[in-house]
Amino acid sequence: MENISLNKSLLVALQFFAFSVQAYWSGGVALGAHLQALNVAAVFTAVQVASLLAFGLLADRVAPKQLLVISAGLFSIGAVALFGGTLPWIVAGQALSGAAAGSMVVIFAAANRHTADDDRSYAMRRLVGFVWFGIGFGQIVGHAVLERFGLTGFAATSLVGAMVIVVVVAKLPDLPRPPRMIPESIRARFSPAFGLTLVISFLAAASGSVLQTRVPFLFEENSSVLTFLICVAAGGGVWVSRRRRFQQRNESGILSASLAVIGIGFLVPTSTDNPWAIGSAFFLIGMMIAIGDACFQSIIGIVSRPSSTAMSIGIFLTVATGGKLVATLLAKSPSSFAAAAFISFIAAFLAILLYTRVETHIRPNN
Q1: 240, CA 20 to 30 Å: which among 28, 35, 62, 230?
Q2: Is there a contact between 298 and 366 (Cβ–Cβ < 8 Å)?
């Protein structure tokens, strides 16, 4: 399939869809915290992991808009289920929403396929920036609505969010089906560079998510506001970085540098108890995580085959989610920040090795 220079109308629609999905998901996390019911958040995450692979498989065979229509429908039904008010209805609604959230695979695959190679880093940074804005918006709005209006208000807000997603999907331009898949072995479909990228993404998610799990313990009642500010700073940082057209071969180098800075940032809480110093380090870590996310998406677009781009992204996001689960175990340790720093430095070193692997996948004209 021939890539176009940059489909701006497509990119705008995709980034608003990404924002809406992440805001909806983040509001669900706030709901689980409000109800103090671990199974609410756990059900969402478990179903999302399964749907990432399902959407990844389908997105390599079905036109993107058809899958996003299904996703919008699931979000809408999930929002309506919240009006049931009881825990079973809430869990059912979050399960449907978790299934719909797997459509993020479709978003990134569409942006990868329908954006020219030279513009891929620009497109990924715009998308990732909106993802982080959405996470921050959902956190702060979710907590505020629950505290003031309770579950009914949250359900109504979720339904409005689902309707926004429906409108955004309706505005999406029709895109052609992905290129027809050619039967090939797993080894031929997924390169060694892709495997190395998965290892790095797992380590990066395991270290980076320590930030998310430790903020509530350190800042307690101010944690939602701090999380919101970190997400806005992270989204703003990656949004500003989009202005520069990074060459594809530089993405793994930028990833390595961002992981190294994350490691240094995690060393700050191990050496001081000053809340301002720790908060500043957390802001820097959040910004570097967002930039790293954009680099990962660009690298996946480089090292994966066009016929299996969506499946590659689905596997990548699933592995990253596994790394986040490891972070919940690290957070219980008193040395979690030191462990996160150590893991980040290992990932940074592996990203340097990835540089030579990525070079072999870049087309001569790049």
Answers
A1: 28
A2: no
